[in-house]
Each structure stands twice: as structure tokens, then as C-alpha cells.
Amino acid sequence: MEDKIMDKDRVVGSAKVVKGKIKEAAGKMLGDAKLEAEGKADEIQGKVQNAAGGVKDALKGE
């Protein structure tokens, strides 16, 4: 039976994307450019981490 558990990087990366989107939206609403920029950075980091986890998952499947 194949192991279908996602790599932890995908889970953590997805959480960072959500956190980043929330921070970015809050920064826009509050007019806080720094918070908005931090949110965008968190989102990008999360996407990269999620992609890395996807590669690990693909390698596990082979």
C-alpha cells in the first residue's frame, strides 16, 4: 500500500501562504505598507516551500 501522507513542507507552505494573504490584506486595510510587504513575502515563501514539498512527494512516489 502506497503512503499518501503529504510532505510536511507542503502543509507548512500552505499555511504560510494563507498567513501571508491575511497579513497582506490587513496591511492594505490599515494602510501599513510594511505589514503588506511582510504578507507578500510570507506568501512567496509558502509557495516555494509548498513546491519543494511537492517535489519530495513526487520523488517518494517513484
TrEMBL record:
Pfam families: CsbD. InterPro entries: CsbD (IPR008462), YjbJ_sf (IPR036629). Residues 9-60 form the CsbD-like domain. Belongs to the UPF0337 (CsbD) family. This is CsbD family protein. It comes from Skermanella aerolata.
